[in-house]
Amino acid sequence: MTSRILQAIAASLFLAAAVSASRIPSAPPRLLSETGLYAGRGTNAIDPRNRPFAPQYPLWSDGAEKSRWVRLPEGATIDARSIDRWDFPAGTRFWKEFRFGGRKVETRFLRKNGDGSWTFASYAWNETQTDAILAPADGLPNVAEIAPGKFHSIPAVTDCRACHVPSEAAPGEGASRTEILGFSALQLSIDRDPGAPHAEPLGDGMVTLSALQDEGLFEPARPEFIAAPPRIQAPDARTRSVLGYLSTNCGSCHNEDSSIANLGLALKAKASPVGAGARVGAGFSRLVGQPTSKWQIPHAPEGASQYVTPGAPDLSAILVRMKSRRPSTQMPPLGTALHDKDAIALVTEWIESLTARE
Amino acid sequence: MSKSRLTVAFLILTIALFSTMLARAASDAAPAPAAEKSARVARGEYLVWFGGCNDCHTPWKMGPKGPEQDFSRRLSGHPAGLVMPPAPALPPGPWAMNASGTMTAWSGPWGVSFTANLTPDKETGLGDWTEDMFVATMKTGRHQGKGRALLPPMPYFNLQKLSDEDIKSVFAYLQSLPPVHNKVPAPIDPEEPGQ
Fold this sequence. Notes:
The structure holds 2 protein chains of 2 kinds.
Chain A: H1 2-22, E1 51-52, E2 65-71, E3 78-79, E4 93-100, E5 103-112, E6 118-125, E7 132-134, E8 140-147, E9 150-154, H2 157-164, H3 209-214, E10 218-219, H4 224-227, E11 232-233, H5 237-249, E12 270-274, E13 277-281, H6 317-323, H7 341-353
Parallel strand pairs in A: 3-10, 11-13
Antiparallel strand pairs in A: 1-2, 2-4, 4-5, 5-6, 6-7, 8-9, 12-13
Chain B: H1 3-29, H2 33-51, H3 53-57, E1 60-63, E2 66-69, E3 98-99, E4 105-108, E5 111-114, H4 131-140, H5 156-159, H6 164-176
Antiparallel strand pairs in B: 1-2, 3-4, 4-5
Helix pairs in contact in B: 2-6, 4-6
């Protein structure tokens, strides 16, 4: 009897300690070299436990060269009960390095904490490229000139959350649903889209769905990720690439689960089990021929402002906003100062190829 | 019963008693939903007055004693019928902005901004906004918490300091207003070379 009571008290004390620990602020380290990215202090060699990966539809970041790494805690698995919303174990870390002209400018860092929350941090590289220092929470403007008069800025933490936290009320403390935009079933599929704008080749040792499945890192196991790799379902190759691009560059905010779902624009490609495997459906029926709900294309005739108007790029709001880099009009609204010429060309050709029937 | 058993039993009894008292106090203090809503709206109205939201979101007109807020259009933003001519260029020097007599249209280095319709009109106001969206907007300084940056002279950085509960109260008050159908123009970006 006594031992049972003592066990109960011990459990209560343990619970209280756990609750107390979860309230400890998960402050990021001051230096990038303290986050675990490198094999040791004073070296820029990546710790071999951090594994590189490359999403098949990369986010446009003004042409920055990028490298990305993930580290899962040893022995831990990714909760993949939901194909689309993986839940990562506490201790998972992600890094993304941005380079312009071969120089490292910024490295972003995400870490899942013990209480389920995520730490968002960004590090600005020093002049000598030996280490990077934690940027202020409200960001750092104009850290590198990327075109005459155009600069790369390090985003504020609130800006990070705008894309990574789909529907949180406010960027407060505590657990929240956070999405790793470049590390998902579609992004890591081995059925990669050769037409994806700015597609990056799969390098040696890069993590893919197959690697994660083969290594038993999904719980439950997801053999269908290998048998039928996720792929955008589209009538032709160009449409597949367009939808993949829009999914990455627009879909993190414009999706059915977003806090701005009321705009009626759902561009995020969702994986869903079809038959024996997973396919990604990103129907554009809600995109083509649909009037814009709030924003109107300037000078467009009454009622002619549509998200996509078949055959009419100038009357297609998504393209008009992709082309703009004016602060009140540009899309995406953050993280980019230059428009994406390759993607604009692709989407223009796609809209021109559509007929009114579609 | 040994001394240690007595101590443990006393400890458990004390914790149980204290928990019961706390739970009862919490349930006694919880107001009825209607009363809570009414208190929230009242708190929001108080914050809106003190925060000066009417200063820019309620159009001003000329009254017998000079400029006064037109409360027949309370918090409905820049009147759609008031089409502004191009903003006058500012001379070199410390003058940095122009404002309309309604206090609802502003121009400066950021372009031209028009104050938003904060009434719960579904099409032109905040009628289809959620509480979460409003809180995120105030906390991030971005339209609907994700879009373009809010433009001057909107002092979102002051509201950013409010608690989530207070921002929710402001939203509750705004949602309690009569909806005014008034489609505010989109902001006008400054001219940019090459665009």
